[in-house]
């Protein structure tokens, strides 16, 4: 369940608060709708609950705040606006990327696509999705981690009537299996079709908190809609004529429209005819009468229920069907929301000697099989069961969720006591109060490898990285051929395609661009921002990005050398570079490429922009390295005059041959001004990244 206490948004320079002291609850196994007009503060309230907006108050999800959840995406599914995915990424690629971040198998993406009916569009790019497809994909992303709670911001906005019916069936089925659904809506009629409880909000304040039966009785009353050019005169006549006969309410709507409550169509039409008042429209409607229900007092400020039994005041009791003892040759049949389910004998039997503690019946299976009678086997006068649509999406939920929720006990923990001895009614029925859902099984953490899986799927999900690498290979090939025809440069520069005027080899420049895109795309298309408070800068995610970018830079260097060598051999024959020069060429550019990739990654992570990351990579050879070349003329430079020789002496230590070659190449790079500039830039950016991360932790 969800408990919000005193949600208040931050002040906005004298303007009224978007949310002002909002307190409500959303029960487990129910659909709770935040209802209000546009600008009422519904979306801001959801963002306050998810700690996406500054403010005050407490929001508890099953008794815990969001900051105390190690994996929020495994417990809370969110849909706040459009899906923040890259327009060139496919639907299944986007979900598999999120599955890696949530620590669930990649096959889970195919399951939720089947649930939302997008299997045939799994390979479609997100940029081509319609509004309805985008909403379906958002619901699939919300269900990906198998959460116990869904928080949805106007999920039916912009949908066609058929898509709205599908979404309502899916949410009803999710709630009937024990999940908690909190959603916003602006239309009272749409809210009445799906909700178990309606929390009305206006101006950021709580207006009414009603069960669906009370909401329908007080808000959705029959009315006679009248449109007349003499609306004011007709309203006066109706009030005068009908005041003595029946409690009639005449409400003046916008323009020349009237709404008459408490009368019928014939009476209103006859009165208008008798007074010769022209009527352009006369029709029966079900109208929204406005919030008129009084708000109950807040008994406690800590979010706990008022009574010791854990019952929630104001909730209607539900009736749970208990399966009586049957013979081995018979079977028990339970009715769930209009559908019949056969329970084999021996499962979910209730022995006569089993206790009914406080009116709560406990069913214990004789075998280790899951209990057949679940908390979803609820019938009676509750509004939730009477509104479950036929063919509801209960059976279309993912198999893990169905199996987990099907094993729930018939009587939930924390049910309140019932008055009267022995709460058994006729036909084996027991009336219980709704309580908390059964405890969900503990899910294992994602593991240390999730950043690598996430980054690999993010990196390979779009064609941007491949185009950058192809362009770098082509540019390096053109430069290498031009160098070969114009002179005899060193083999290292010839194989890497690094001409003298260029500040960086093409492979290193492309590696810097790939590193900048690794974090730049995270901020432009924040796929992880809804499952956590903002785009995460966690150390594990940074390590995964550094590893993937480093490996990509090394592969790009190797590919550039192989392509250039093959092309030069075809063009020059024996005059081209020999294979013996390949290791030295790779070692001379690999360290520089990895450093550029990491510099672009860290700069984009600190400044939240891929363009700034590319600029930081370009600034290393163009601005920082020339500045460091002037250092030898200063007193500090004279102290560091023998640094290259001292660094070279480190390579005389007894290392393995491969490690020795890498150390020699790194020392050779560090002994140059470009290497100093790159090392200094990496150190400064790493410190900046740490400071930004610590600042967000304090917030």
Automatic annotation (TrEMBL):
Positions of the UniProt region annotated as Disordered: 288-316, 332-363, 381-400, 406-430
Listed InterPro entries: AAA+_ATPase, ABC_transporter-like_ATP-bd, P-loop_NTPase
Pfam families given in the database record: ABC_tran
Gly residues bias (residue ranges): 417-429
Keywords recorded for this protein, A-Z: ATP-binding, Membrane, Nucleotide-binding, Transmembrane, Transmembrane helix, Transport
Bias kind Basic and acidic residues: ranges: 299-316
Recorded family membership: Belongs to the ABC transporter superfamily.
Protein name, as recorded: ATP-binding cassette domain-containing protein
Taxonomy of the source species: Bacteria, Bacillati, Actinomycetota, Actinomycetes, Kitasatosporales
